[in-house]
Q: What sequence folds into this?
């Protein structure tokens, strides 16, 4: 039995359906992420798990017990918000110990559990500091310590890294992964940041307009999206209108608008004549000079239309002879100055026959 079960949950606000018949199972000790654009329903689900909001239909069960009649303050759940919600007039130790005092723990228990919580987030030396004396990352760790100090069954995290700058955000991602692994508490994480979700999660539920579009491990979401929405939302994609010409064992022959016929991996729901899109990640597209890439079954001539240098990689937008525009990504891994193609250069694009995917309409 899953630790947390969300069964056919619906939540409406007037005529707006924020969460539409959603069912999810979350396992004990899992780092589970709700991912999607603003307004997709992910935060509403988090609020219903916490008890700040109630479903109009369906059930939320924790360890098999329906939470409907359990008020927020009685649930073995804690929420960490993007704003940290620290008490400015309290020290770090007082902030972290606050839930223990509210639970009327003994002074000896408070002392022991506080010490353990501060050690877990490496803030023992900041116990007497006030929030205004801390960096953004330290404030975030105080909020996490306060959330974990009374050993909740679930820790809910609502965009907890959203207020941090990019470098600190990346450092905190590593800390979150390590902390979750150490404490073994189930994390339910809400974010709209795809890269963050891929980096942190055991599994991800991608949400679209109040419904779950796909639940999967990060690598499968990225490599095998089941819908055009998921494919487009997770990472970057080239998408070209296509029709299946031949469905053979192990591969498809597709007629792609602007390209002609290409070979692509087979999919279980492809049928001859079926329409959809051929989608391929920029990092799967190779770029080279004329005379190169001819060994690939899918190769085309084009001209560099745009170039974006990002330091570790260069992104090329290549206009093909028939007007199609395809993005290719080239790692700048060679020492010294990267060998860049320039805007206007004639180039060759290609990709393997087992790269990309056909997504039906």
A:
């Amino acid at each position: 039995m899953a630790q947390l079960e969300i069964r056919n949950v619906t939540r409406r606000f007037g005529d707006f359906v924020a969460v539409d018949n959603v069912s999810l199972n979350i396992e004990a000790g899992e780092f589970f992420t709700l991912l999607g654009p603003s307004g997709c329903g992910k935060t509403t689900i988090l609020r219903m798990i916490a008890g700040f909001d109630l479903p109009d239909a369906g059930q939320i069960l924790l360890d098999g017990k329906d939470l409907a009649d359990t008020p927020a303050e009685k649930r073995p759940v804690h929420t960490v918000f993007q704003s940290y919600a620290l008490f400015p007039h309290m020290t770090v130790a007082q902030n972290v110990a606050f839930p223990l005092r509210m639970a009327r723990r003994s002074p000896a228990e408070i002392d022991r559990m506080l010490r353990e919580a501060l050690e877990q987030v490496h803030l023992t030396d900041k116990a007497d500091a006030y929030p205004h004396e801390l960096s953004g990352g330290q404030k975030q760790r105080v909020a996490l310590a306060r959330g974990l100090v009374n050993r909740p069954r679930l820790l809910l995290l609502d965009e907890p890294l959203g207020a941090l700058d990019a470098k600190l955000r990346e450092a905190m991602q590593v800390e979150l992964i390590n902390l979750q692994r150490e404490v073994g508490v189930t994390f339910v994480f809400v974010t709209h940041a795809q890269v963050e979700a891929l980096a942190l999660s055991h599994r991800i539920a991608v949400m679209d307009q109040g419904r779950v579009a796909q639940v999967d491990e990060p690598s499968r979401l990225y490599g095998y999206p089941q819908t055009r929405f998921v494919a487009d939302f997770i990472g970057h994609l080239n998408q070209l209108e296509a029709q299946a010409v031949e469905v053979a064992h192990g591969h498809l022959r597709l007629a792609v608008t602007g390209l002609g016929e290409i070979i692509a991996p087979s999919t279980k729901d492809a049928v001859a004549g079926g329409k959809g899109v051929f989608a391929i990640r920029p990092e799967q597209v190779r770029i080279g000079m004329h005379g190169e890439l001819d060994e690939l079954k899918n190769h085309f001539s084009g001209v560099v239309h745009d170039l974006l240098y990002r330091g570790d990689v260069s992104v090329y937008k290549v206009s093909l002879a028939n007007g199609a525009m395809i993005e290719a990504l080239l790692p700048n891994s060679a020492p010294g100055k990267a060998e860049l193609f320039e805007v206007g250069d004639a180039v060759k694009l290609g990709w393997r026959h087992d790269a990309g995917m056909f997504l039906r309409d």
Summary: The first strand starts at residue 4 and ends at 13. The chain is about 25% helix and 35% strand. Residues 82 and 160 are 4 Å apart (CA to CA). The radius of gyration is 25 Å.
